[in-house]
Amino acid sequence: MAVKSLDDLVADGGVAGRHVLVRSDLNVPLDGATITDDGRVRAALPTIRRLAEAGARVVVTAHLGRPKGAPDDTYSLRPVAARLGELLGSDVPLAGDVVGREARDVTASLADGQVAMVENVRFDPRETSKDADERAALARELASLVGSGAAFVSDGFGVVHRKQASVYDVARELPAYAGGLVLSELEVLRTLTGDPQRPYAVVLGGSKVSDKLAVIEALLPKVDRLLVGGGMCFTFLAAQGQGVGGSLLEADMVDTCKRLLAEAGDKLMLPVDVVAADAFSADAATRTVAAGEIEDGWMGLDIGPESVRRFADAVGSAKTVFWNGPMGVFEMAPFAGGTRGVAQAVADGDAFSVVGGGDSAAAVRQLGLPEDGFSHISTGGGASLEYLEGKDLPGVAVLSE
Ligand SMILES: Nc1ncnc2c1ncn2[C@@H]1O[C@H](COP(=O)(O)OP(=O)(O)O)[C@@H](O)[C@H]1O
Ligand SMILES: O=C(OP(=O)(O)O)[C@H](O)COP(=O)(O)O
User: What is the distance between the terminal CA atoms of the chain, rounded to a whole angstrom?
Assistant: First the structure.
């Protein structure tokens, strides 16, 4: 069955007076309760606004960070609901729970064209449960919030690779439609899966190491160059027997990295130098050292200048570039040079270039890089990677069941 879109929903008898549950990806970077980059909220806006303007009673669900399946104020969606309200130009009430009494009250009291949110859906342990029955139970409760006659719009591209209750299971409980953001992201990424112009370079960094190691294996045969920086690189350096001190390391993935290094040969490029620090802090003492010479008590928080030159050369000569994951802890000025240097090289080059991921997109904007230097800035990092890898995205596949 073909995926139905938001256009179909609006055309199918209209949405005026109907409840519509929208799953967005509003997982924004925060400094305390301050949003440091609202790109994902802005990206979610067109779908939410279109539904509201068509008279729907819109209930938005989203996650923020990775709370441990229980309410945790650090991960409250309050700042996000406030920002969404500012951008919409009307107040967005936020229920203090996910499917409890407040969620039911807020949902029931919506007027036509109004938008409300429920709290971080990951406060409910069933959202991310491996047990399909537990997830289905939460999905039924989410569906019953909006009642019969309601519809579900899946618009959180950054999370469609997660088989989670509010992304996957809920689409089986309500008539389900793909939002404009999901469809437009897939359309751009499709151009990278066909026959990309070569050389094709993929740059990986960031901190979700174990998620992305699996992706490397699948991408290796498809790309000409795979550049690995950020927190990702230290497990590879450790696999080469190099000293990584207190850097981010997934010890149980070292053997996998050994195997990947052997398979990849010189396709896979690692940093040759790193900016090491004696603490995870913007005020830490720093040193640039050879990649294998990080001492105990020090940690690698950025790739070094020689690595930036080599990575910049590789992306500068590529005709297609996909980049996910910052090269260092760019949020702190002393560790932003690697991300800035590589991003600038992508922007200066003439490759078809896609940068994906909440933090990577935020880095482009925060470091003042020209957004028009990239062919596309995607809201999803892991989701884009899994798509490029050729995997089915559960949150998309379920829409055509
Ligand atoms: N060497 C490093 N050590 C620890 N964290 C790092 C390192 N390099 C990058 N990071 C962190 O990775 C985070 C982004 O990772 P990730 O979520 O995987 O990227 P994206 O959101 O773009 O997909 C940033 O907050 C950044 O500070
Ligand atoms: O930030 C996200 O993904 P990304 O860092 O891969 O872009 C999404 O909101 C998914 O979050 P998750 O990786 O905690 O499931």
Answer: 6
Compute the distance from residue 343 Cα to the ligand 1 centre, in Å: 14
Q: Which residue has the tokens 């066909």?
A: 194
pTM above 0.90, yes or no: yes
Are 299 and 164 members of one domain?
no
328 Cβ closer than 6 Å to some ligand 1 atom: yes
Choose the final residue of a domain: 150, 183, 216.
183
Question: Ligand 2 site: residues with CB under 6 angstroms?
Answer: 25, 27, 66, 158-159, 162, 357-358, 380-382
**Nearest atom in ligand 1 to 301's CA:** 1
Give me the domain span that covers residue 227.
Answer: 195-389
Q: With contact defined as beta carbons under 8 Å apart, do 212 and 250 qualify?
A: no
Q: Which residue has the tokens 């003492």?
A: 285
pLDDT in tens, 8-52: 999 876 899 999 999 999 999 999 999 999 999 999 999 999 999
Tell me how many domains the chain contains.
2
Tell me, letter by letter, the H, E, C secondary structure of 270-293: CCCEEEEECCCCCCCCEEEEECCE
Domain boundary among 135, 158, 183: 183
Q: How far is the CA of 25 from the centre of ligand 2 (A)?
A: 8
